Amino acid sequence: MCGIVGYIGYRDTVPVLLNGLRRLEYRGYDSAGIAVWNEQQIDVRKAQGRLANLESLIEVSPVEATIGIGHTRWATHGKPSHINSHPHTDVHRTFSIVHNGIIENYLQLKDELTAKGYVFVSETDTEVISHLLADCYTESVFDAVQKATKRMRGAFALAVLSIYEPDRLYAVRYASPLIVGIGVGEQFIASDIPAILEYTRDVIILNDGEVAILTRDGVEVRTFEGQAVDCNLLKVDWDVSTAEKGGYEHFMLKEIHEQPSALRKTLTGRIETDYHRIKLDDLGMKVNDVKNIERIHIVACGTAFHAGLIGKTVLERLLRVPVQTEIASEYRYANPIITANTLVIVVSQSGETADTLAALREAKRQGANVLAITNVVGSSVAREADHVFLTWAGPEIAVASTKAYTTQLLGFYLISLYFAQLRGALSSIQIGDYIAALQQIPDQVEHILESFESFISYAKQLNEKNNLFFIGRGTDYGVCLEGSLKLKEISYIHSEAYAAGELKHGTLALIEEGTPVVALLTQDDLFEKTLSNIKEVKARGANVLAIANADHASLRDASDAQFFIPQTNALFHAITAVIPMQLIAYYAAWLKGHDVDKPRNLAKSVTVE
Ligand code: AGP
Predict the structure, then answer these.
(1) CA 433/CA 568 separation, integer angstroms
(2) In terms of residue numbers, what domain contains 550?
(3) How confident is the model at residue 608 (pLDDT cuts 50, 70, 90)?
């Protein structure tokens, strides 16, 4: 999730690129860079950190041109640094490129190109593309793009500048969004519409497998196979702020809807379907260390802690190793019992949460091996942990965490299966079955999101309510805790999440006529038990929405409304089950007119104790 911008025309390109990058800075801000053709050579400026650093650099060392590309980075492969920032070039600077996405087979390509004498300077997957284009070039840039794209696996949106055709820009799209803006005597490339709205509202949305060739006079679009494409011109009537949110009213809603693609990214390159294997060798964990794990501590705060609760169940079920999930602010002062074979897993979207970081340091001080699940490359947690699993969810702007949570869950599934594979706890056929289920999850989430309107009507019913209960058993209880947090955080409606069997030990006293209860039933072995808890609250007048993985007549009889999520492996329902809860929370807050993205009293990253 980075930002791409490109320009060819009559204006001074540097301010155009910088303006575009400023509009995209919310998508990535660990480094930024530009490359322009200055009539003699490709000139590159890049700087680590916020865009302001790049601007200061250009002030000191200016450059003039009318064609160029720019990028603002959110690191995936390789830490945030000057050397890893885009644009990347080949050694002779014949090609310069900016890239969004992930090249899954970059290590293999890197080996091949290194053997041919190409010298790599960065740790990124992107750099292989510039060398590959240089290697493929014979007669035209389009021909080089055609040959290179045949070799690349994964996701890529590219803007390409080459000395061989200094009066053209190329925009290449595969599984990562890219648009072209059409002007008079000037054309633009961008990963997102806001970057170019200042200059044009005529846009072509490229499809996967298409290349746009931009000259000052116009744009031609071809498929990777070279066939001409007849493109529809889109007239954009959004304002800049709507455009930043992709047309959604809030970042939170955008991020909820980004979950299918975020989950696909988390899976990218981590599954060898043909061999029924999970590929997480980049965690750098020694096989023996994994085999020797005797207990696991999961430590996190808030939503990340809730992901850890599900992680505990999955790890225990698959590995039969004792796991405890702890709130970081408690763990750091609890003098935890850490033995030589304890693995500590810290979970943090931002990687900067003070309590989680302190817990990590405490664990390390006591000699634990620490694995971090985080979304931010180069964050403190990522730097200080021994091993890092990156969720690749892209920047999450809304304070209420959504895509970070579901990708953390997916991270736990992948890690648990990977450990089970190394420890021989599952056969490759069993792992193959789990993998098949995992691969369906993004589509299942997409399917649920299509029903968003049902949750607007449900949220309307909550408008007058001050109290709500979420109940469930097993992993459903963990998901209820997250659903309840989401609702409280942004709608300010008080809610409690309860292990369904625990209600009658006190809380049942709070159920009265019309009290809304959301009951989660996605675990077949616990269905009857939760159903009887629904009957208990119904008997006291509750209004029950049941979210379940299968339609049962008994459930229809016992509850007031039902929503069914797609069937998958019981351990994996947590991801799909939380989607209705995120939508309920969002629409409840939206109907109340709250500032959904910035709820009162809360910050996105809590860097104080
Ligand atoms: C959830 O919506 C919150 N924003 C909050 O609970 C958050 O998950 C918690 O503060 C932990 O943040 P982290 O993942 O960045 O460490």
Answers:
(1) 11
(2) 452-591
(3) low
Q: Which residue has the tokens 């931009």?
A: 214
Both 361 and 475 in a single domain? no
Categorize the per-residue pLDDT at 273 as very low, low, confident or very high, splitting at 50, 70 and 90. confident
Instruction: Write down the residue that tokens 């494409």 correspond to.
Output: 229
43: its two tokens: 């000139």
What percent of the chain is modeled with pLDDT above 90?
81
Instruction: Provide the angle, in degrees to the nearest 10, between the axes of the packed helices 428-449 and 573-591.
Output: 20
With the most atoms of ligand 1 within 8 angstroms of its CB, the residue from 256, 301, 586 to mutate is 301
**503 vs 207: CA distance, rounded Å:** 52
CATH at 172: 3.60.20.10
Question: Both 322 and 280 in a single domain?
Answer: yes
Question: Does residue 463 contact residue 493 with C-beta atoms inside 8 Å?
Answer: no
Domain assignment of residue 493, yes or no: yes
Whether residue 380 sits in one domain with residue 317: yes
Task: Give tens-digit pLDDT for 414-452.
Answer: 999 999 999 999 999 999 999 999 999 999 999 999 999
Q: What is the pLDDT of residue 1?
A: 59
CA distance 447 to 344: 35
pLDDT value of residue 81: 83
422 and 467, same structural domain?
A: no
Residue 243 is predicted with a pLDDT of: 74
Distance of CA 255 to the CA centre of its chain: 9
Span from the CA of 301 to the centroid of ligand 1 (angstroms): 6
Q: How far is the CA of 391 from the centre of ligand 1 (A)?
A: 14
Q: Residue 291 Cα, ligand 1 centroid: separation in angstroms?
A: 31
- Asked whether residue 382 falls in the same domain as residue 519, the answer is no
Q: Alpha-carbon dihedral of residues 99, 101, 107, 111, nearest 10 degrees?
A: -30
DSSP character string of 202-250: EEEEPPTTEEEEEETTEEEEEETT--B--PPPEEP---HHHHHTTT-SS
Ligand 1: residue whose CA is nearest its atom 10: 302
**CA dist., res. 63 & res. 542, Å (int):** 68
pLDDT, tens digit, for every residue of 142-165?
Answer: 999 999 999 999 889 999 999 999
Mutate to test the pocket of ligand 1, among 327, 353, 399 (most ligand atoms within 8 A of CB): 353
Name the closest-CA residue to atom 16, ligand 1.
Answer: 348
Q: Among 386, 418, 447, where does a domain finish?
A: 447
If asked whether residues 238 and 301 sit together in one domain, one would say no
Q: How far is Cα 24 from Cα 282, in angstroms, rounded to an integer?
A: 29
**Cα 241 to middle of ligand 1, angstroms:** 25
User: What pLDDT is attached to residue 27?
Assistant: 66
φ/ψ of residue 465, rounded to 5: -90, 150
Q: For a substitution probing ligand 1, which of 331, 352, 606 has the most ligand atoms within 8 Å of its CB?
A: 606
Last residue of a domain, one of 422, 447, 472: 447
Measuring from each residue's beta carbon to the nearest atom of ligand 1, which residues come in under 6 Å? Answer: 301-304, 348-350, 353, 356, 399-401, 489, 605-606
431 & 548 share domain? no
Residues with catalytic roles: 2, 604
Q: Residues 372, 407: one domain?
A: yes
CATH number at residue 278: 3.40.50.10490
